[in-house]
Amino acid sequence: MSVRFAVIADDFTGGLFVASNLEKIGIPALYVCDPGILPSIGDQGVVVVATRLRFMPPAEAVATLDSLTVSLDAIGTEHIFYKYCSTFDSTDEGNIGPCADFLIGKYDQSRLVFGPGYPDLRTYVHEGYMFYKDRLISESIKRFDPISPMNDPDMARVLQRQTAEKVGLLPHRVLHRGSTVAHDYVRDQQDKGVRYFLMDCVDNDDVALGAVIFGGDRVTTGADALAIELASRWEKRQLARQDRPMPLRGQGGEAVLVGSCSEVTLRQRDHFALSNPVLDIDIREAEADALTDRALEWARRRLDAGRAIGFSVAGDPDAVTRAQSMFGVMGAARKAEAILAGIARGLAEKGVRKFVVSGGESSGAIVQALGIQSMQVLAFDELGAGSCISQDDRRISLFLKPGKIGAEDVFSAALEKMRA
User: Does residue 29 contact residue 47 with C-beta atoms inside 8 Å?
Assistant: First the structure.
């Protein structure tokens, strides 16, 4: 039993981006939601393991990563890629730094690459400064993120606050000169005590050269672009393009669950509500169980009518601030996720088999609540990433998306795709 390339994704939607893009170019990627099944997966090329590492307390995140790497090592994994958000979403306490410190120590590496950015989605890093949609990230909508507001555009500085290791920069001006110059530069920086290399990501050429320089390391870290490039290089050495048949889809009710509070998601929710019933839930009104029960009773009458329905715990910035003042930043987020997860579990018991979910953390909570162990990921298409089907007898179809992406009509379009 062996795995050539394992991606440990720090949230569920990020892992889907990697898997769906690999599927698009004909490289199968097993998407694992429950690490407990790893000993039984057999030989695999690429495995993507979805976790909720991003916002765990740092000590819990490291312990979770420790357990997961033990399982991956036991099945003969050759390369481990620790995948985080392309915009380096994290707090000053972690978890990117603490998880990286654990990995470089466990595998006794002399260096570790960090590759945030995703040029195809207009997320760039130049001289260590991140740009999101052509603005410094500190001037973009990312500065309003309710859990990890990105107010510092210097990614090397952000990482340095999370680790005692010396952080250096591998800039575009060096990468642009080719592999020989870049290799020499990295070696020179290592001689000066640099162990962590924050890599520029101005274009896909930077990503490709980074994969050449660091691809032989036992462990690498980065965002979607570097993960896809490295995994595809590993697999292209092993097999030709594969086209897999479309998996069987589940048949049953349809629901949209909205956890993200981004402006993009709020517009998508409002568009869906123009032609479908949507229940807005104020998490301050009652305990989570009571709000869940109330939502499921509301759903029962509408499901009987055969309608697609929606549930939203997302609010405008003022509503988010009020909820956070009552429960704390993470407390508000976890209560909202618990409500949506409870609703999803109850809906599945009532025969719902098509779920659209907005929000990375909400997606993780809902997939875990549904008891899904692994999924087949569908290829990246006009909807983007996020389409997947559970590999169990229920055949639950899901579309899991980050909050800040997608067209205004993406919820309805995703459900329509599930009906095809």
Answer: yes
